[in-house]
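Write out the 3D structure for:
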Amino acid sequence: MNVTETHLKGCFVIEPTVFKDKRGSFFEVFNQKVFEKKIGLKVNFVQDNQSISQKGVLRGLHLQKGQFAQAKLVRVIKGKVLDVAVDVRKDSPTFGQHFSVELSGDNNKQLFVPRGFLHGFATLEDNTIVSYKCDNYYHKESEYGVIYNDKNLRIDWKLNESEVVLSDKDKRLKIFNEFSDKSENGNKTVLTYGTFDLLHYGHIEILKRASKLGDKLVVGVSTDEFNKIKGKKCKIPFEERKKFLESLEFVDEIIPETNWEQKIDDVLRVKADIFVMGDDWEGKFDFLKKYCQVIYLPRTVGISTTKLKQIL
């Protein structure tokens, strides 16, 4: 067994010794004693998972947080994937960097992904079988993730964008800035704005994600008078929209939005550390960067107030 540490400390590529003769081939897939000696760590794997995927299927980027964090040992039984690990250990000198390697049924390589890493893979051949060991059990409530095509991570998945097939859950994963800020969000106030007419799950999702960036979420809600100035027609009056939002457990404070110019004053008054808007506003609020961090979150796909009004 040949073990090579990648530029990400604790992340290893394992290449087993394969014995071949006229009958076929044989190799030792895993040996606990040899494995631990080679990587210098004690790892107790408790769960094995296996998936079958067609070309273009991309699974990731995933991790489990806290006491449910997992280390993984990944291999391909049949077919080929590009396997990716991203270092998200807070104090690591390679935080935010990634490593990728092709694993296939032909090369028999394995990738050891330690705890504190995001992990994902892109399927490069049809009917690919991936098997991986985990050193902790699956725990749904501890799942976290980052969208595969995050512009800051810049991962080349070896697939055309049109080929990528995602689960609905993976389509909704957050951007890396949002994810990384979550680990350093103590005593931070998040500020966002919206009309929130016909409150729907798209609103809920983006507000919930915004709330995870800090300890306090302040939401500015457009008043009826301001909506008239903007030329917007609301089906629900301001007071009712305000009550709906106040009923959400992750919303801490509601403030009225009465004009376009109030943003700087609001940031200073509520002592906002982070200003959040949907990515359809990208760049429009960059002037606030001198006062706080500005993040544009992806909108929830397939739902909008405009669409609902058209249906109604």
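The chain has two domains: 2-167, 185-311.
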